[in-house]
Amino acid sequence: MKKLIRNFLLVFIVFLLVAGIFSSLSGGDTKVKTVGIEALINQINSDSVSKIVVSGDKINVTLKDNQEESVLKEPSESLSTLLSNFKVEPAKLAAIKISVQEVSGWDYWLANIIPIVLPFLLIGAFLFFMLRGVQGANSRAMSFGQSIDKDFKPDEKNRATFKDVAGAKEAKEELQEIVEFLKFPKKFHELGAKIPRGVLLLGAPGTGKTLLARSVAGEAQVPFFHMSGSEFVEMFVGVGASRVRSLFEKAKKNAPCILFIDEIDAVGRRRGSGLGGSHDEREQTLNQILVEMDGFEPTQNIIVIAATNRPDVLDPALLRPGRFDRRVMIDLPDLKDREAILAVHSQKKPLAKDTDLKIIAARTAGFSGADLANILNEAAILAARNNRKEIKNEDLFEAIEKVMIGPERKGRVITDKEKKITAYHEAGHALVAHFLPDADPVHKVSIIARGSAGGYTLKVPSEDRHLHAKSEFISEIAVLLAGHLVEKTVYGEVTTGATSDLRRATALARSLVTDYGMSDHLGPRTYGEREEMIFLGREIHEQRDYSEKVAERIDEEISSFIKQGEAKAAGIIEKEKRQLEKIVAVLLEKETIEKDEFEAIVGPKPLL
Ligand code: ADP
Ligand code: MG
Ligand code: ZN
After folding, report:
1. Residues 427 and 532 in one domain
2. Which residues pair with 302 in a beta bridge?
3. pLDDT digits (tens, 9 = 90+) for 294-341
């Protein structure tokens, strides 16, 4: 709409300009008096005319006293016939210089053509501008299906090798085999071995799936075709399938190569469980992928690598032998791998001598490779902001918290009362976490607002663990509820600050019952089928596979687990009241307590 108005204005201004030029050209005539033909005859007969110039249908007359005038005649009639018709004395006429001037093309145009043509030109221009806008959008839409062919070029940027991937030892070993296939296919063909067609990389977001796929191509030195699942599904029906076709075609021409489909869950979801229109499109795209993969000759050295963080939603047809039958799990990095990843990403960053990546790795349990890369980047930014040439330990620590919880918000104004409530709340979390042997040790307590939290207590597991017992979960619930509980015992009422704690505690308790089978009453089974459905853009996760009666008992069990946690926390808060007051006092004074200082206040953590 804006464009339309602009175009209109443009046309309007052009119109004004043309009109201006036009009127100034014709305006020259106004100085010359126009007289009738009879007046001219009289002037000739009375000898007062010195010169006559005929120009088209105009007769320009110069009088003896140098005055000028003009007379209009019919274009078809010549001057001589005209004058003879009016009976001018020939002798008088002979004394006058008469000449005929060509009408210049320019004059002719301006005078005759433009007034007729100009309106059409203006309307034409207006329509042209208007239509051009519409057509632009249209032609872009129409060329969708074809233009994608051009897009599929081997990805030459971001070349990577296994050296760029730290840790992930097992995954790299598995993928090394793929590299061999691509490098020496003959070796395998001669033995009659079939080269796998598809490899599925499974792992949490940021664990380096994309990076690994790239590095396989880099190691084998073959072209890398990259496409994201969501790119297949577009505005127009049928585009997905046609994109798949042209992608595979390109890959076949460039074999041996790697064809990487990122986020394949966007197209490869289990078929037939969805509602709504977008589903058909996805299904067609998925079918096309399956058809293309089945159509490979075993000697066509193309390996399709796909990545997803939602293996549970994938269509079983994708996982069948001959398709993505090789699966490579990529776990979140453990302590050693985290240190290695930090080392890889700090290669080009000047670290101060006192920095110890081991400590950073120890503090970042559960972080993905992408998180760790982000931490180093944030730390570098912090160092630069403080005009330092090196990254110090404190930058790294600050970066961890920033990535974990959000940026510090020192500027937030809080009243003394709010500050005190926050101090009690956080001290509660810290106290219970410290005195429960199976809870993670406290690394930091702070009442400086960060992200959306008013204060925070940082607990870090002392080791990477994969199995958790029920009692640990109850302790976790106890720690989560501790803030709320302290507020209640000290102030007699609670604030809104505990909302997210309560939500997390409830979610955890629900998992204990429905996912982990940890409820003695409901027995060792799961409740609720996790099925993906997309309805009106919302994912509906759970489908009930139990009765209304069981639902009530689940609710009861959730409440019971929460009560157990609450009792555990209350016991500690009651017993260690004096320690609580000590923590609060230090928090109010210093706002932040680090691990060593914390243990100096409350004593060493009791062991299991
Ligand atoms: P995913 O595809 O699994 O979501 P990416 O491959 O996009 O994750 O990883 C994002 C970034 O995280 C990478 O570009 C890299 O910088 C970093 N990263 C992740 N894992 C590793 C790793 N094992 N070694 C080095 N860097 C890693
Ligand atoms: Mg990725
Ligand atoms: Zn809290």
Report:
1. yes
2. 257
3. 887 766 788 899 999 887 778 888 888 878 888 898 988 988 999 999
Q: Which atom of ligand 1 has the smallest separation from the CA of 167? A: 23
The least confident of 64-78, 148-162, 165-179, 230-244 is 148-162
With CA atoms as reference, report the closest residue to 259 among 297, 291, 301, 288: 301
pLDDT at 583: 94
Predicted pLDDT of residue 289: 85
pTM passes above 0.70: no
Encoded amino acid at 215, one letter: S
How far apart CA 585 and CA 583 sit, in angstroms, is 5
On the CB side of 275, CA atoms within 13 Å amount to: 9
Distance 259 CA to ligand 1 centre (A): 19
Q: Is the dihedral of CA 508, 510, 515, 516 positive or negative?
A: positive
Using the predicted structure, report yes or no on whether residue 63 has a pLDDT greater than 60. Answer: yes
Q: How far apart are CA 231 and CA 223, in angstroms?
A: 20
In Å, what is the CA distance from 517 to each residue of 462, 468, 512?
26, 13, 6
577 and 436 in a single domain? The answer is yes
149-179 per-residue burial string, b: 16 or more CB within 10 A, e: under 16: eeebeebeeeebebebbbbbeebbebbeebb
User: Which among 159, 162, 164, 207 is the best mutation to test ligand 1's pocket, defined by most ligand atoms within 8 Å of the CB?
Assistant: 207
Q: Is 219 a catalytic residue?
A: no
Q: How many residues does the chain have?
A: 608
**DSSP assignment string, 419-453:** HHHHHHHHHHHHHHHHHSTTSPPEEEEE-S-BTTB
Residue 115 lies in a domain: no
Domain of residue 318 covers 150-330
Instruction: Note the pLDDT tens digit of each residue in 360-411.
Output: 898 888 889 999 999 999 999 999 999 999 999 889 998 998 888 888 877 7
- Tokens (6 digits) for 515: 């996912």
- Report how many domains make up the chain: 4
Least confident of 357-371, 450-464, 515-529: 450-464
- Cα of 369 vs centre of ligand 1, distance in Å, is 5
CB 522 within 8 A of CB 555: no
Residues 238, 365 within the same domain: no
DSSP state letter for 17: H
CA distances (Å), origin 24, targets 14, 116, 432: 15, 18, 93
| Same domain flag for 553 and 434 | yes
* CATH at 32: 3.30.720.210
Of the bound ligands, which one is closest to the alpha carbon of residue 163?
1
Q: Which residue from 372, 185, 403 is spatially nearest to 296, judged by alpha carbons?
A: 185
Beta strand extents in 250-387 (DSSP E only): 257-262, 302-308, 326-330
Q: Do 251 and 293 sit in the same domain of this protein?
A: yes
**Residue 215 CB less than 6 A away from ligand 1:** no
Testing ligand 1's pocket by substitution, the residue of 159, 162, 169, 211 carrying the most ligand atoms inside 8 A of its CB is 211
Which of these is catalytic: 426, 476, 557, 576?
426
* Cα 215 to averaged position of ligand 2 atoms, centre (Å): 13
